[in-house]
Automatic annotation (TrEMBL):
Source organism: Nelumbo nucifera (Sacred lotus)
Family statement: Belongs to the trehalose phosphatase family.
Magnesium listed as a keyword: no
Pathway involvement of the protein, from the record: Glycan biosynthesis; trehalose biosynthesis
EC class name: hydrolase
Name of the protein described by the UniProt record: Trehalose 6-phosphate phosphatase
Primary role: Removes the phosphate from trehalose 6-phosphate to produce free trehalose.
């Protein structure tokens, strides 16, 4: 069992009070969901015990929030003991279970024969390297050029936890789809019949009724955590991020406690985790996986067998999209990670520079001038 694998529930308290700390799940799952039975390898403890542990402030006891926060962005393989016992396991993860998408490029491409590739790209940690200051997570010019080239041949979407305008300000490519706020704010390019059903640009915001609540919780969080050095609250329009990358680990417990205190007042919001970040979002059943399905449908590929979606992402929230692909037996998920992680992705890439290489290879493969017959339809963005 990894330290992350803790499910906390209290049937007496009802569904809304259930808390889970799972690798890719939310800490406060959506209203309406049944309390899950702890899956194999997970431990179930009562909510009362969980809160008590939190209230003791740690000491000799384990604070599940802090444990989960620690596990949220392990810097080396030792942080994930279940996967790190031998070098052999690491080798097996990369070579057998989730081989490099670069090494497997030909196989991936052969699966695309006669199919339209659709590209889905996460932003932070996938197109841009992880940095301390979220406002300075710029993507390189070379990466922008690679994404632009890919989008000439394949419909391409950026799917991010960030607010859509913010991620657009980093990527600055008007020809792409953007799904911000973990897919809760989707917008297609303004021009081009191939980009939308009919002639209207795609726009979809399934959580708009939550806007006032998100504003309120953002303000409350800013106020609550201002005394914690290094903590940062980011307004992502339909969700809020609380960053702890620059917070001293000794303060993580008190940060978690402050966030918990605010969230107690908002049962319609839930908490999930990303890389050194707590993510607060509406309890609606919508995530990056649903956004991927929505986008495929908008492009006219709902229930189609002639489409090959490729989703590249590095974070727990990307797992929702990997899972949709895996469950549907459609396309491929590619996890960006240097270390073994539990994932529903099929392949791996180590870091953004490898993502860029993969994008270059896609373009090279598709380019007719190489003398190679085109095996996938050309997605013409000039109309
Ligand atoms: O879905 P994504 O595009 O991957 O967005 C997820 C979160 O990414 C950003 O935070 C992460 O990147 C920051 C910059 O490198 C880093 O400082 C932080 O620790 C990471 O968690 C973004 O700031 C968040 O709002 C997104 O939710």
């Amino acid at each position: 069992m990894t330290k992350q694998n803790v499910v906390v529930s209290d049937v007496k308290c009802g569904i809304n009070d259930m808390i889970s700390v799972v690798p890719k799940g939310s800490l406060f799952p959506s209203t309406g969901q049944k309390p899950p039975k702890a899956p194999d390898g997970y431990v179930s403890i009562s909510r009362n015990k969980f809160l008590k542990k939190l209230e003791t402030g740690g000491g000799a006891r384990i604070n599940p929030w802090v444990e989960s926060m620690r596990a949220s962005s392990p810097t080396h393989i030792k942080s994930n003991p279940s996967l790190s016992s031998t070098v052999h396991q690491e080798d097996s993860w990369i070579q057998l279970d989730h081989p490099s998408a670069l090494n497997m490029f030909e196989q991936i491409m052969s699966a695309s024969k006669g199919k339209q590739i659709v590209m889905f790209l996460d932003y932070d940690g996938t197109l841009s390297p992880i940095v301390d200051d979220p406002d300075r997570a710029f993507m390189s010019r070379a990466m922008r050029a690679a994404v632009k080239a890919v989008a000439r041949y394949f419909p391409t979407a950026i799917v991010s936890g960030r607010c859509r305008d913010k991620v657009y300000s980093f990527v600055r490519l008007a020809e792409l789809y953007y799904a911000g706020s973990h897919g809760m704010d989707i917008k297609g390019p303004a021009k081009g019949p191939r980009y939308s059903k009919g002639n209207e640009p795609v726009l979809f915001q399934p959580a708009s009724e939550f806007l006032p609540m998100i504003d309120e919780v953002y303000k409350a969080l800013v106020e609550k955590i201002k005394s914690i050095p290094g903590a940062k609250v980011e307004h992502n329009r339909f969700c809020v991020s609380v960053h702890f990358r620059c917070v001293d680990e000794k303060k993580w417990g008190s940060l978690a406690e402050q966030v918990r205190a605010v969230l107690k007042e908002y049962p319609k919001l839930r908490l999930s985790q990303g890389r050194k970040v707590l993510e607060i979002r509406p309890t609606i059943k919508w995530d990056k996986g649903r956004a991927l399905e929505f986008l495929l449908e908008s492009l006219g590929y709902a229930n189609c067998s002639n489409v090959l979606p490729v989703y590249i992402g590095d974070d727990r929230t990307d797992e929702d999209a990997f899972k949709v692909l895996r469950d549907k037996g459609l396309g491929f998920g590619i996890l960006v990670s240097k270390i073994p992680k539990d994932t529903n992705a099929s392949y791996s890439l180590q870091e953004p520079s490898e993502v860029m290489l993969f994008l270059h290879r896609l373009v090279e493969w598709q380019r007719p001038s190489r003398g190679r017959p085109r095996e996938s339809k050309i997605y013409n963005t000039s109309t």
